[in-house]
User: Fold these one by one.
Assistant:
Number 1:
Amino acid sequence: MSYATDPSPDDGPAPRESGTQALDRALSVLLAFRGTDTERKVSDVSRELGLHKSTASRLFRALADAGFLHRNEENGNYRLGVTVFELGARYLAGLDLHGVARPLVHRLAEEEGESVNLSVLEGLDAISIHVVQGTRNLQLVSRLGRRIPLWCSAAGKALLIDQDDAQLRATLATAPFTALTGNTITDLDTFVSRMATVRQQGWALNDQESEEGLRVVAAPVRDRHGRVTGAISVSGPIFRLDEPRVAELAAAACRTADELSRQLGYGFGDVWGD
């Protein structure tokens, strides 16, 4: 955000400012509360932003009048006000995994040229709720609504990434572990053992476990409470997805999943409740 700084934060009268400049400065004051300090002094923020002290005081008062800031009458410091909470709550209430993810999933497919899926957990399956075909030749595209067993899909493993060994055994106690290919994991013990690697690296691999000739990487998506709410996966033929390419796509899937998680409120603390 760009705005002209005052010639001196403390000396002389504050210069007049345009409406746009005032708005920029007011927003900058609000953004100064993104740190760990719950309360801030007007003088500290004015120095940090290069604002004249009288300008900063006027902005703080205006923001407090609108409920964006609240003044502590005991020490004169300010903290974020109830209007910020109300707007944040409205933002979170309007979040929709599919809607928020759509542009990110399409961007990932365009950047990497491979097919991208957004999946959610349902029973013992990972189900595709959004599918984007890649731009490269020979695409192996999952259909919308396709179900793939958790034990043989990258998305399924990513959806289970936070479960410890005991939780995995409970979740998959009734799973048949049917073999779809020669690479499918067919017993619970092996699956639980391999999930340790998934948890350690933060992403999952399907190496021809659900379909011959197909490799898939997937990363978990988290909601504002930190719970895994979905998975973003990137898939392609094995002749294109060699080990170095798998690592590249895994990193890209993780970046996109992390960005989506942030847009869903993850990483800001569980301050909104249920």
Number 2:
Amino acid sequence: MLIGKHVVFLGGDARQLEVIKSCIEMNAKVSLIGFDNLQSPFSGATQRRLTKKVLSQADILVLPIIGTDDQGKISSVFTSEEIYLTEEHIKALPSHCLLFTGLAKTYLKNLCESNQVNYFELMMRDDVAIYNSIPTVEGALMMAIQNADITLHDSQTIVLGLGRVGLSLARVLQAIGAHVKVGVRKSDDYARAFEMGLNPFYTSELGEQVENADFIFNTVPAVILDSAVLSHSPYDVVIIDLASKPGGVDFEFAKKRGIKAILAPSLPGIVAPKTAGKIIARTMMKLMVENVAEEGNLQ
């Protein structure tokens, strides 16, 4: 339980709502900053402005999944106000305060590390990434279906990368009857794809492999579908790029060739924000309770 603990939420999107709900249910004191346009305010949470005083009373600070940008700007879909997290704000946090975010860019990492703030990057955890692969795969299939005039069943489909998302995606595509090839770099990934009954190939052969592709799903966070590769692909191929920005596709070249290539990062928060929020809430609550209990034992 989080009885008596002050949890401050600073910005975010619909995924944060499930985390807020969980904190209220666990009897935490909850303050919301950057939620002034929330249509259904929470009973048990208080709207605040970003001040050093509020942060000085925080036991836990929860930032958006994307953390901050390189200037410290906080994203929040529930306010029109621009919010920036500065070093003064971080310095105001108590020494025991825990900071949670999805991903921490260099700006946020430097702030936390230079001020000895204990922070957690949820999206770097294997369990969160595996759970998140579920809405990511469903969203990828939805986008492919919406942008094609053929079925995924009996299609020639390529999945690039056999990481946590690629593995789930290849398995589901195979289950619905697609002919799935998987592009990998490492021999152990090649062996795993072979064991699953897929058709593995090394990405060094990608130019040859795309020649008859109907769909290509990319999970590799580097430009792997460059102009040299795309020049071998059919004009009517549909490419769904699930890698983080800027993605793994030469989008300018794809556009010139008339290839439909769609950059679709962060699908969980778009296609299933409630499910994505529950995934984050479950992991965050576990970490909060564990760390609060540990702090209590040290005192």
Number 3:
Amino acid sequence: MTDAWLDAIKWDADGLVPAIAQEEGTGVILMMAWMNREALRLTHETGHAVYWSRSRGRLWHKGEESGHQQSVRALRIDCDGDVVLLQVEQKGGIACHTGRHNCFFRELDANGDWAEISPVLQDPDTIYRNP
């Protein structure tokens, strides 16, 4: 297989595309991250989610520190080709760096406040290496 399939993606000016990780089976949206061509190619080749970390300025293999890898079951693009959807099996049940199952744990309540609606499953200090 050639890399021509990557040409169907509408990369932004920085060569990135938003990528949404969705839990296989439940349909729960776990997180949103960014991918460049290499990250998407590596994700396809390895079957494990690889993203582009804008803060680190490098490829980020999901779970490289936490062990909470995402095994990719399917890759899809939206109708415009400008968003990638990864259907994944989330290892360890934690996708968010806050120690929660997913990154969408705040919901706007009737008072206009962001309420936390999902529990911390594991203290982040016990998940990640601290410098």
Number 4:
Amino acid sequence: MDKILVTGGLGFIGSHTVVELQNEGYEVVIIDDLSNSSENVLQGITAITGKTPIFEKLDLKDKAGVEAFFAKYSDLKGVIHFAASKAVGESVQEPLLYYENNIGTLVYILKELKKLPEASFIFSSSCTVYGQADELPITENAPVKQAESPYGNTKQIGEEIIRDTCKVTPSLKAIALRYFNPVGAHESANIGELPIGVPQNLVPFITQTAIGLREKLSVFGDDYPTPDGTCIRDYIHVVDLAKAHVVALQRLLGNKNKSNYETFNLGTGKGSSVLEVVKAFEKVSGEKLNYQIVGRREGDIISAYADTQKANNELGWKTKLSLDDAMRSAWKWEQKVRG
């Protein structure tokens, strides 16, 4: 079967995507620098699929290292590019670190792909490119707004770099997948989200609070113009999201794409408030969560959820797992990690 490179393949979304690729019979090569992940994730992937992917520890900022990698693996058929720094707050404090790590590395990979007779490239993008959208649900035609953070800006600039490269590189086909909010874990609890330090995302903060690692969950603001006053997001189960990457890759490998640069929103199409997520967790876990309403957090938008029609119709993909499924699997994973 085709050999596929997954950068950041030991991270949260990357590891789940490696599992789905291997389940479909692809041979996977992972690049990860272990800056926000652990080599132990390989064991989890192997436990689920019965197969260990090839792993190359490499910092993609090392241009010579990237060139040497592509010389060694000259038979790659596709690349799924997750590797990036992703903490919004940190990006505001350390913009140059984010521009170097998220933009420079993308350029090095695209330079190598340009040399190949043909290449398929999937880019891990984000709904942050839309900011606070004028209309909900958010379609792929919604205007890309000025980024709220250097992290968000790296996703916008990344998309522009890929689009500009595709325009003059007929041998390169690319899809940017704009995710909404990935949550949950593989049902086996062999892999999941493992944030280093204090979690930046809601669900790991919920599970870490429930297990006693954090004292309480702070809910930032209950005075937003939403039904219960808390922010609304589109929470997509990471396994559904991983499967979308395989479908998008197959679209490119099978020459089903309509142009050599395409974008798709990946979400459930349904918004859930912070308090609804808390209630879903309490329901499936049987735990009472200690949370406190505090002031709004700077940079938080009110509401964002996807219009999923394009992904449903063009990719033939839709989500199958619910918010309850995601919370149940995230809790099972948390209990295993801390157990």
